[in-house]
Amino acid sequence: MSKAIVVSELGGPEVMRFEDVPVPAPGPGEARVRQTAIGVNYIDVYFRRGIYKAPQMPFTPGQEGAGVVEAVGPGVTEVAVGDRVAYAGLPGSYAEVRIAPGARLVKVPVGIDDKTAAAMMLKGMTAEVLLLRCARVGRGDTILFHAAAGGVGSIASQWAKHLGMRVIGTAGGPDKAAVALALGCDHVIDYDKEDIVARVKELTGGAGVQAVFDGVGKRTFDASLACLAMRGMLVLFGQSSGAVPPVEPSALARASLFLTRPSFFHYVGARDELLASARALFEVVTSGAVKIGVAQTYALRDAAAAHRDLEARKTTGSTVLIP
């Protein structure tokens, strides 16, 4: 038996229970991982509330973690017993011990500790997908990144600056704005007080930005579209403020705009894509160009408190649960 967070009904943080669960022996292609750190992401809230449908009920939330391989099943060649590993996009991470497909685990290089690995896998690989493979941006381009002090934003802002982009971030309140500036944003817009569109137009001489990265959704979507330059791209990758209403395609005709709603899993589904994304993340972190800030840690049993703080916008950077 092992301890895990179990959700038996949809709802608020209070539906997450810390319970004993059985841990089977790994089957063909599987590995058993004793976890040392577990990442918390807003997608975990979506599943808990039922915005995204869980594959089954009850379920254990969570998408990323790090730990040590305890056992492997038949046919596993990607990892071995004793390997330090991490993963992203595997449901069921809020647990002391878990079973995972060996092909979805990546070995953690020397120089990156387990807490850092757990904090950065889903958020960091998402940043890699957004900046390097989803949007058509590069050195010299100006981008707008919403929630720049948040989990994905805190990594993407640094990475974009490393790639030579001019980064305009948004944040809620002066404290988060200060965090975003410290991460390397050239300018930060406080969306609690400032008009995002007017400020972006001012900062770009009326031209707008080449790309907007929006994980906020309903609250910022219209402003995001209005901030785009000619043939700019809006990358909508989340909806922390709620789902965006249906969009009339003619809304894009204003400036021949592009709109995409990427899914992380569509970019790292193949083993070679997964390894390439993880390798790029490990390299930019070990080089020092991107620093991973674990701003909050909670005991695994206190996962409900972590979710309350996340939904109340009390967190910055990455949040990690410790089994």
What does this protein structure show overall?
The structure is a single chain. The chain has 323 residues and is α/β, with parallel strands linked by helices. It is built from nine helices and 15 strands. The protein has helices at residues 42-49, 114-134, 151-162, 174-182, 196-203, 221-226, 264-267, 271-286, 303-311, and strands at 2-7, 16-21, 30-40, 64-72, 84-88, 97-101, 106-107, 142-145, 166-171, 187-190, 209-214, 228-236, 258-260, 294-299, 318-322. The strands form three sheets. Strands 3, 4, 5, 6, 7, 14 and 15 form a seven-stranded mixed beta sheet that branches. Strands 10-9-8-11-12-13 form a six-stranded parallel beta sheet, with helices on both faces. Helix 2 (114-134) packs across helix 3 and helix 2 packs across helix 8 (271-286). The longest helix is centred in the middle third of the chain and has 21 residues, at 114-134. The mean pLDDT is 95.
